[in-house]
Fold:
Amino acid sequence: MSRVDKSPLYSVAYKPSGGQNVKKIAPSILSADFTKLAKEIKAVEDAKADYIHIDVMDGHFVPNITVGPFIVEAVRKATRLPLDVHLMIENPDKFIPDFAKAGSDILTVHVETCRHLHRIIQYIKEQGIRAGVSLNPTTPLHQLEHIIGDVDLILIMTVNPGFSGQSFIKSCLPKIAQVRRMLDEGNHKAELEVDGGIKVSNISAVAQAGTDVFVAGSAIFGSENYKKTISAMRLEIGE
Ligand code: DX5
Ligand code: ZN
Structure:
């Protein structure tokens, strides 16, 4: 069954404020050329990206270190697109106000890092921004059960977080479909975002599982022409 546009269930999924059921592309700047970051961001903005996805890594929760609030602030100045900030850090509560002040529009925390998840989600919302929750590929979905109605975004990882350019873990596809069902059955409006290994060649399958927001790093920034790549992705997902 196609979940791209025809399924009656899809009509109850998250709808952007415009009222259309538009799927979103979120380029991850982890794969951008940081020596010309503003230009890279402008290029994906011109290519009609919907969000700018920023991967924050601390060297503890994941085996890599990337950027902090200082870079988020710089990215804020370079674009009007919503900043979708993915926190792959231990003790995220300590940094939430800093990332909010830096200009994040969505702050997503990993359930694996949160001892008091409900409190942290409320804390993010208190900053006046959207709150997301993310699950690693092997983290079971029951972790969502008591928070699904409180979040604005659910981020399903389809690689083990830490690096761009990894291969999509195919066994995550049924997991995405299961989250879609949980959202639809509960009439929850959170966006369903998928992150890791998404390319033009597999984005259609990811869409059919019920994804709303597609994060792509290497597939976009590693391509010759960002506009062509994003257009090709949209064609594959029926947008
Ligand atoms: C992985 C990050 C991803 C990553 C995606 O830990 O959360 O956002 O940058 O990169 P690709 O699309 O290359 O897998
Ligand atoms: Zn990410």
User: Anything to note?
Assistant: The beta strands are 24-27, 52-57, 83-88, 106-110, 130-135, 153-157, 191-195, 213-216. The pocket of zinc ion (ligand 2) is lined by residues 28, 53, 55, 86, 195, 215 (CB under 6 Å). The longest strand covers residues 52-57. The longest helix spans residues 173-185.
